[in-house]
Amino acid sequence: MDLGYVELQHTADWAACIWAPDFPGLLIQAARAMFEMSGIRLVKAPKVERDFELEATDDESLLVAFLSELLFLQETEALAFDEMSIHARGLKLQAHLTGGKIESQAKEIKAVTYHNLQILRLRARLEVTIVFDV
Amino acid sequence: MLTAKDFQKISNYEWEIPPRIREGMRVPIRIFATHQLLHAVLKDQSLEQAINVATLPGLVGDVVVMPDVHQGYGFPIGGVAATAYPEGIISPGGIGYDINCGVRLLGSSILAKHAAPHLNSLASALDHYCPSGVGKESLLKLQHSELDEVCDQGARWAMKKGWASEQDLRRTEDGGCLKGASPVKVSARAKERGRIQLGSLGSGNHFIEVGVVEQIFDQEAAQKMGLHVDCLTLMIHCGSRGFGHQICTDYVQEFQSVVRRYGISLPDRELVCAPLNSPEGAAYLGAMRAAANYAFANRQILAHQARKAVEEVLAGKVENWYFHQVYDVAHNIAKIETHTIKGRPQKLCVHRKGATRAFGPKSPELPPEYQASGQPVLVPGSMGTSSWVLMGAAGSMQKSFGSSCHGAGRMLSRSQAKKQIRGDQLRSELERKGIHIRAGSLPGLAEEAPQAYKDVDEVVEIVCEAGIAHKVVRLKPLAVIKG
């Protein structure tokens, strides 16, 4: 399957180009990029599950809201996730996440920005570049 | 794509991009740089970002770009933009996620040679007393009502706890408390994050640095600041932690639809804004001030903790171990200020994103001891290089809305820095130079390596030659604690 991410050059912050075949896949891939770039490692047990629903005015806002929710859980409960299931319908999404407590983390992301944020709908995939404030 | 012909030379240190070069620009851009630095700046997107800022509605005067400018998100870092008050706009992205990120400098009469045998212990004690690093919470856990008090009172809240002196507050921008904060306009999520982080440094480029006054350029001003050659200083760089990050996140999200409501069209969604005289703009202004006050309190508590560390290590070993406040400045903030525009005083909302207020002499906002000279401007360098204390000059009031640079400014991207520099090697190299390092993360240390930054001495030279600040002292680092 055509999905992945690549870190891009950015002078002050972090930027990543992320791609996936569909919108839920793009959200999951963006979350993975965010966790990997932060150098997050999870404890092996116990597993923790979280479910939440989000709504936004467009896909880009839904993407920012989803990643911001993960940053909130990361900071307030020290949680991150390695299995994610997302159902998106229109401008709403339901997320079911499985993960655990963070054992170690190299770097902190302060926020997910809207800087030049635009989800590109290419022939076989969706692609977006996200700038993270660090 | 900008090219050299798009710039008009004003002087060897000032350049202008006229509004005609891009459709939608409402005002010119004034850049403080040498010819050489200007070309270096063109390598990233900072000036394109400044052009985007120049399209915002309600701007007054020029968009100003400092010599430490580098690419950010929305606004460039090292940018100043002023909008008419109250009919202009306020943009959360023009302040940034780390609201009231700023710098505090403490001075002392401790001779570095007397402290030298104890510097390693001092670095460890500072690391112990001032929580830093990813996910590190504060030792304080505030009740929600206490957090609201912090939002309203800023550093004054710390004074009530016995953690600040009257001099500390007097020598803090706005006395450490912005009026008009609205904790009710802050989300429950932001409060949840803020409640457990007050009194912590965080990570990224935040630090505590023990330095020494290496050279004095203005003896009278240094005397007023209590800075003496060969004596120790202590610098604290941090902001409003997750509290400010969440407030900015909340309002940037909300303002995505607000701009449509007010018919504002923008070249970049991170520049979303609201009219200052709208309910949405007023709500953000109140929430932003709450975060600014949180940051003033945060730096005050860290200063108190740092003084405890100093006492533990140096009491009885040096004659006077007290570190007095020199000044505390914000470099990510928007403030309502009065400036003279075309000969008339006008109230403006001055956005400073990676820029320091640098009011010149006779500014009524300054404490009495700095009235005659001008505001202390704190310019941290990078770990292995100098930091500077400047003073705001009269030119800053005419050219830059009373603003100056805020640091060296990044040159290398973080990914380039990590590829080129290894954290453990950097730590050894700095320790060989006699700089004691405490770092929460080695990759994080590599990203902040001196090689990743511009030459701070050159940046300072430009703002001084341009007449917006002048030199007081240069500091040399002795110990750095990084999150």
Give the topology, please:
The complex is a heterodimer of chains A (134) and B (483).
Chain A: E1 4-8, E2 14-20, H1 23-37, E3 41-42, E4 48-55, H2 59-77, E5 79-89, E6 92-104, E7 111-112, E8 120-121, E9 126-133
Helix pairs in contact in A: 1-2
Chain B: E1 8-11, E2 14-17, E3 29-32, H1 35-41, H2 46-53, E4 59-73, E5 75-84, E6 89-90, E7 102-111, H3 112-115, H4 119-129, H5 144-153, H6 155-160, H7 166-170, H8 188-195, E8 207-216, H9 219-225, E9 231-238, H10 241-261, E10 274-275, H11 279-314, E11 324-330, E12 332-341, E13 344-353, E14 356-357, H12 368-371, E15 376-379, E16 387-392, H13 394-399, E17 403-404, H14 414-420, H15 423-432, E18 436-439, H16 442-447, H17 456-465, E19 469-482
Parallel strand pairs in B: 3-4, 18-19
Antiparallel strand pairs in B: 1-2, 2-3, 4-5, 5-13, 6-10, 7-9, 7-11, 8-9, 8-19, 12-13, 14-17, 15-16, 16-19
Can you offer a commentary on this structure?
- The model of chain A has no long low-confidence stretch (mean pLDDT 95).
- Chain A has a single domain, classed as Archease, Possible Chaperone, Chain: A, domain 1.
- Chain A has 2 helices and 9 strands; from the N terminus they run E-E-H-E-E-H-E-E-E-E-E.
- Chain A has 134 residues and is an alpha+beta fold.
- In chain A, the strands form 2 sheets. In chain A, strands 1, 2, 7, 8 and 9 form a 5-stranded antiparallel β-sheet that branches.
- With 483 residues, chain B is α+β, with helices and mostly antiparallel strands.
- The two termini of chain B are 37 Å apart.
- Chain B has one domain: tRNA-splicing ligase RtcB, CATH 3.90.1860.10.
- Chain B is globular, with a radius of gyration of 21 Å.
- Chain B contains 17 helices and 19 strands.
- In chain B, strands 7, 8, 9, 11, 15, 16, 18 and 19 form an 8-stranded mixed β-sheet that branches. In chain B, strands 1-2-3-4-5-13-12 form a 7-stranded mixed β-sheet, with helices on both faces.
- Chains A and B meet through helix 2 and strand 7 of A and strand 4, helix 8, helix 10, helix 14 and helix 16 of B.
